[in-house]
Amino acid sequence: MGKRSTLVYFIVVLFTINLGESFAQDSLPYRDSTSFFKFLEQQEEIPALVYRFKLELKEGSEALLADSTFQFSQLDNSTWISKTYPNFSSWYAAGAEYLASDPPLLQPEFLVYEEVSDYQATLDYVSNLLRNQDIFIPESSLEVGDELVMLANLVPYEPMVKYRFHFFSDYKLVIVVSLIVFFLIMAIGMILFMVVIKTRHSKIEALKEKYEAQIIGPLSEVLFEKSEEEINLMTDADIYAIFPEKDFKKKLFKEVLIDKIISLNKKMKGDFKDKLKSLYKKFKLDTISYNNLKSKRWDVVTRGLVEINEMDVVEALPVVRDLTNASNFYIRSQSIATLLNLSEKVDLSTIKKQSYPLSRWQQMNYLRIIKYLQIQKSLNIDTLFYGENQTIRLFGYKLVRMLGRVDLIGQLAEIAPNVDDVEKIEILKTYKIIGIHTEATFVNQCLRSENPELVVAAAKASGVIGDQVSAHILIELLNDQPSFQLKMLFLDNLMKLDQTMYQEYISKSNDLELNQIHAHLIDPLLQHV
Amino acid sequence: MKKILIIEDDLLISSLVEFRLKKDGYITHLVQDGNEGTKAIESFDPDLIITDVMMPFKSGIEIIHYARKNKPDTPIIVLSSLGEEEKIVLEAFNLGVADFIPKPFNPNELAIRVKRIIR
C-alpha cells in the first residue's frame, strides 16, 4: 500500500469510527428509543408535538372504547383514535397499562404539526429542536425505567447511529474537523520535511567540507608539480593515488571538484589555466558538464553551460547549439554566450535564428562578448538586420553604432526606408552617433512623419547629419506651434544645423516663448541643461 | 627563514599561494578574515603580508592601515580582483604597499615578486 493510500485510509478510519460515534453520543442525550422516551417524559411540553393512542378494534378492546378517559373518535370502520395529549407524561400515564399488555391494546401515535409522524420523523424533529436550542436537555439524568423499556419495545428498533458514515451528515463538523486534521497533518509534515531537509543539508555541507579539505592539497600539488603533458599522461591509477578511489567515484565529490577547478580557473592565469583544463578532462568532469546539458532542470542545464564555457569543452558545442532557442531565458542566454566564446567559426546567425525576443540584459551580455570577439572573428553582424524578430534587428542596428561599423551603413541605408518606425528610430540614432551625413534624405523623410516619436528622433539626428532641407522642415515644424518641449528641441537642432537660418528665424519671430528658449540656448551656463 | 602572513578569505587561493611559498622555503601563516589578520600581524610578526581587499569583518585597506601603524617596516602585497575600484587601488598604493597583484594571477609570478620584495 502506498503512502498516499495509507494516509487516505487513516483519515477515513478517523472520521468513520471514532469521531462518528462520539459525535452522536455527545451531542444528543439519547442513543436509543428507550432513552428518547425518557427524554420526552422529562420535557414538560414540546412545541408542535402531541401524543395520542390508536385503537384497532379486536377481541378484548371493545371495553376500552367505552372508557371516557381517552375520548376515542372513529377514524374508519376498525380504527379509533384518542384525544391528543401535549404532555408525554400524562399521555403515558393514561395508557401505560394498555401499551404494556400482550398483545398491546393501544398503539402510540405522535403528531408533529397535527400530522401523524412515525418514530424516526419524531426523533429527527426533536433532535432538530435540541440542536437549535428551542428545547433543552433536562438536568436530571437519563435513568430509564422498565415501563419505558416496554414502551420502547413497541417501536421497531432503529439504531440512531445507523451507519458509520452518519458523521458525514453534519457538513459543518466535517469541514471543521477536516481543516483541523489537514493543518495538523500539514504542520507535522512540514516539521518532518524541514527536519529531513536540514539534516540532509547539514550532512551534505559536512561532506563538502571534508571533500574540500581532501581536494585542496592534492590539487595544489598536481598544479605545481606536474606539467600539462604529465597531466595528460596520467592514468586512473595516478588519479586514485591523488584522490581516494572510493570518494572520487562519488557524485558529490566530483561536484566539489568541479566547483574548485572552475573557481581556480577564474582566478588563475598562464599555464595554470591550461593545466586546470587538462585536469578537468582527465578527471572526466567534462562528461558530467555534458550530461548536465540534458537535464530537465533549467538550473542544472545552465550550470552545465557555465562549466562548458569556463573549461572550453568544445566537444559539447553541437548540444549547446541546440539550446540556443530554448524556451528558458537563462538557458538561451548562456548557450549563446557559450557558443560565441567557444566556436572557432562563429557568426551571429545563431542569434538571428532566435524566435524569442532579446532582453536588454541579454543584449548587454552579448555586446560584452561580441566586443571582445570582433577583434578575432568575423561575426557577420549584418545578418542580424534580417533577424526573425524585431528585438534582434534592433540589436543589430545598435551593434553598428556601438562597434562603430561604418562599413555596414550601406546595408543599413538599403533597408531603412522599408522598416517600421521603431526600427527607423534606432537607425536614426545610429546615423547620428556615427555621423552619417549621406543619409540626410532619410532624416528629412522621418521629419515629415506622422509619428511624433519618429519626428523627435529625426529632429535630434538632423542637428548632426541634416542638410538645408532639414533646416527648412524644422522651421515648418516650429511654425506649427508645437509644445514647449518640441519647440526647444527643434530650435536647438536648428541652431546646431544652420546658425544663419536660426538667427534669421529668431529675429523675425515675435513668439515670447521662442525668445525665452533662444536666451536659454545661447546662455553658456544653461545650454547643456 | 622569512615569515609570510597570507590574509585571504578564499581558502583555495590562499592554500595554493601557501603551497607555492612553502616550496620556496618560507614559513607561512594563513588567516581567512580581517580580524584574524590584525591579530596575526601581532602574534606572527611576519616579514611580508599578502592580503586580499574584500574580506569579512575588516577590509584589506583596514589591514594596511593597521600594519602601517604597528609594523611600519613590513612590506605588503595586495592581491585582489581587477574589478576592484581604482580608488581602492590608489589608496592602497598611497598607504605604501609594496605591490598590487590583480586576479586572475599566476602563483609563480607572485612567488617571484615576493622574492624580490623580501630579499
Task: Give an overview of the whole structure.
The complex is a heterodimer of chains A (529) and B (119). Chain A has 529 residues and is mainly alpha-helical. Chain A has 27 helices and five strands. Among the domains of chain A are: 3-169, no CATH class; 422-529, Alpha Horseshoe (Serine Threonine Protein Phosphatase 5, Tetratricopeptide repeat). Chain A has helices at 3-27, 33-42, 62-65, 88-100, 119-131, 146-153, 171-225, 228-232, 236-242, 245-248, 251-267, 271-282, 285-292, 298-310, 317-322, 329-342, 349-352, 360-373, 390-402, 409-415, 421-434, 440-447, 452-465, 468-479, 484-497, 499-508, 512-522, and strands at residues 49-56, 73-74, 79-81, 106-112, 115-117. In chain A, α11 packs antiparallel against α12 and α22 (440-447) packs antiparallel against α23. Chain B has one domain: Rossmann fold (3-Layer(aba) Sandwich). Chain B has a five-stranded parallel beta sheet, with helices on both faces. Chain B is globular and about 35 Å long. The model of chain B has no long low-confidence stretch (mean pLDDT 88). Classes of the chains: A mainly alpha (529), B alpha/beta (119). The A-B interface holds A 212, 216-217, 220-221, 223-224, 260, 263-264, 266-273 and B 10-13, 15-16, 19-20, 23, 81, 103-109.
Q: Report how far the terminal alpha carbons of chain B are from each other.
A: 11 Å
| CATH fold call of chain B | Rossmann fold
Provide the gyration radius of chain B in Å.
13 Å
Largest interface, Cβ cutoff 8 Å: A-B, 18 and 17 residues
Question: What oligomeric assembly is this protein in?
Answer: heterodimer
The structure class of chain A reads mainly alpha
CATH class category name of chain B: Alpha Beta
The helix content of chain A, as a percent range, equals 55-70%
Which structural class best describes the helix and strand composition of chain B? alpha/beta
Organism (chain B): Algoriphagus halophilus
Keywords (chain B): DNA-binding, Phosphoprotein, Two-component regulatory system
GO biological process, one term (chain B): regulation of DNA-templated transcription
Protein name (chain B): Response regulator receiver domain-containing protein
